[in-house]
Amino acid sequence: MKIEIQSRHFTPDGDLLNFVNKKVNKLLSVDDNLMHADVFLKIEKAESPVNKIAEIRVHASNGGYFAKKQCASFEESTNLTVKAIRKQVLKSKGK
Length: 95
Prior knowledge:
This protein is an alpha+beta fold.
């Protein structure tokens, strides 16, 4: 699966990029029809401690999935976003 990561208002380090790639690639174990993922990492309102946002849009042959979470760290928000998309994929596969 092709993964594009875009960041707004900061430059991500290599560890964060590897973490995001690893987590998003795990979605392939749920459904092989996933083709492309757009990941947006943003920082909103720098004065707030819970300001790290991860948005993931996954394109599949049978449609698409989207989730957005905001947490204190990018790792946590990415984890929750991937879990939300995984839940959506499993729900659509069950239909």
